[in-house]
Design a protein that fits this description.
Strand content: 15-25%
Largest sheet: 6 strands, mixed
Distance between the termini: 24 Å
CATH topology of the largest domain: Rossmann fold
CATH class of the largest domain: Alpha Beta
Oligomer: single chain
Structural class: alpha/beta
Amino acid sequence: MRALRCSAAPSSWTTWAPQLSPKLRAGPLALRYRLVALDLDGTILDLKLNLDPRDVAALNRILKAGVTVVACTGRPFPGALPWVERLGLDGPIICYQGAEIRLPDGTKILDHGVTHNLAMEVIRFARERDLHVQAYRDDKLIVERDRPEAHEYANHAGMEIHVVGDLETAMSPTTPKLVIVSTAETLEALLPEARKRWEGRLNVATSTPTYLEFTSVESDKASALAFLCDRLGIPRDQSVAVGDGRNDASMIAWAGLGVAVEGSPAEVIAAADRTIPGPGHGGIKQLADMLMGAGN
């Protein structure tokens, strides 16, 4: 059975009035779903950072039908923007696990980060276990030590590493998120402990098997998607969310149609209405067929 769960609506954002293109304003009345929130890594982008041309063609088919497609990713804004541009998306970007919504020019529509005190709790937790942990300031990836895990993440995200003496003094009053990078086995064992420790205070989820991510309890992909749908005047039941990670479960559960990638963690599958194959295996084509066949 599909679990309906969603964090509280974000409590901090800037005023933004959407300017939709004539194509999007006129969208086809025959389509039931008007907006797709699309995760990137593991959903349309494979683990080796490949985009299958067939997936891109299927996504273009969705766009040409007048459906709004919004990238909804855990990636920081600088790591998301190049892929958004390659996919031909020119609207808002939900990034940093939903802590921010940005326009392609960098303008922030929503901004809600982890407070400094809570961030330091996570950092001390990681230090005590000799785990790599990172934060963000002004779209920069900041770390205390130049470890292999930092390079693994930076290479995947397409970002530079900035080594700082002490995250406590280097961070702003808030950070969009924190990430612990380790082996899949280590993080799978750590996840229940971390969720229990910060229950009701932080959202904790894996985005990929080797990234354990922490965001404000008010901020997740579902909260950001709900905010964006409200601003665009799109009812919840006309939204679709597609993803593969635990960090996608909340938006998959919230959307009118939740779609999980086959092989996702059990909680992600449980939140979904449908499943599709992963990148390069026809999943986006199945999604397009699903949307094109969903009339009123």
